[in-house]
Design a protein that fits this description.
- The protein is 35% helix and 23% strand.
- By secondary structure, it is an alpha/beta fold.
- The protein folds into two domains: 189 residues, Dipeptide transport protein (Rossmann fold, 3-Layer(aba) Sandwich), CATH 3.40.50.10780; 64 residues, Gyrase A, domain 2.
- The strands form two sheets. It has a seven-stranded mixed β-sheet, with helices on both faces. Strands 6-5-10-12-11 form a five-stranded antiparallel β-sheet, with helices on one face.
- Helix 4 links the parallel strand 7 and strand 8.
- The radius of gyration is 18 Å and the shape is globular.
- The protein starts with a strand and ends with a helix.
- It holds the Pfam family Peptidase_M55.
- This is M55 family metallopeptidase.
Length: 281
């Protein structure tokens, strides 16, 4: 029984502010501890239910947030960036089930620290529908036939999962009171809930159905400024459909994730360039 775990930070219990999720923030070291503890709770649940291997992918920001020396030694860890498959790096058909821990709501809607891959993106759409990171990463699960057993995050995220992935378990560790405010359970209570839910997901893995892969994939991203859109328009196959919107048809989820990664980097460069121009004035 091989289990794959993707761990983000924004959906972790006790985390709700930008200061906590950004490296260099006063609250970031504490958020690292909370994130690592929830990862360990999921790992514990997986092994309790009979997992023989657990692979963890650090999926937040610079993707080197988890405290390695405190991570359950039975698990292997993927970390660092860029990674071709980003938050879904390492998932293969050999895995029996995937668990998403610390996930959050999509850009352009409610939810604690809601965004989709980049704080610079206004919204990300696949086949015309607004999507979250959980939905995009689930496409990679669909491509290799792995079911999504559990998603942990806030109440907005859980509602999305119930709608899009019937049968997938959820743990609500906090309720959104705004973009950077939450009503959270205690970290200890969250870990107990995650361990139990992870164990249930692993035990029931054979009864779960992998997400459905659409026959076609069209990615649309609303970028932060015109400079980002101008840079992105030079990507082969990309079409600029609005002043800040880039559209591109992709062949599979891996290409979709790659395109998102490139747009992420271009957006960061464009925002930095604009800020530099303002500073020089």
């Amino acid at each position: 029984m091989k289990v794959y775990i993707s761990v983000d930070m924004e959906g972790v219990a006790g985390v709700a502010t930008l200061d906590q999720i950004a490296r260099g923030g006063f609250g970031y070291p504490r958020a690292q501890e909370l994130m690592t503890a929830e990862a360990n709770a999921a790992i514990q649940g997986a092994f309790d239910a009979g997992a023989t291997e657990v692979l963890v992918n650090d999926s937040h920001g610079t993707m080197d947030n988890l405290l390695h020396e405190r991570l359950d030694a039975r698990a292997r860890l993927i970390f660092g960036t860029p990674k071709l498959d980003c938050m879904a790096e390492g998932i293969t058909a050999d895995h029996d089930v995937a668990l998403f821990i610390g996930y959050h709501a999509p850009a352009g809607g409610p939810g604690v620290l809601a965004h989709t891959f980049s704080a610079h993106f206004g919204q990300v759409r696949v086949n015309g529908r607004q999507v979250s990171e959980a939905e995009v990463n689930a496409l990679q699960l669909a491509a290799v036939g792995v079911p999504l057993g559990l998603v942990v995050g806030d109440d907005v995220t859980a509602s999305l999962v119930h709608r899009e992935f019937p049968g997938t378990g959820t743990v609500v560790v906090k309720h959104s009171l705004g973009w950077s405010a939450a009503n959270s359970v205690s970290p200890g209570q969250a870990r107990a809930l995650i361990t139990a839910a992870a164990a249930e997901a692993v035990r029931n893995a054979e009864e779960l159905t992998p997400p459905t892969l659409p026959d076609w994939l069209v990615l649309e991203v609303d970028l932060p400024n015109e400079t980002a859109a101008e840079l992105a328009e030079a990507i082969p196959g990309a079409e600029r459909t609005a002043i800040r919107t880039i559209r591109r048809e992709v062949s599979d989820p891996a290409e979709l994730l790659g395109m998102i990664t490139v747009l992420y980097q271009l957006s960061a460069s464009a925002v930095a360039a604009r800020q530099s121009m303002i500073t020089r004035r």
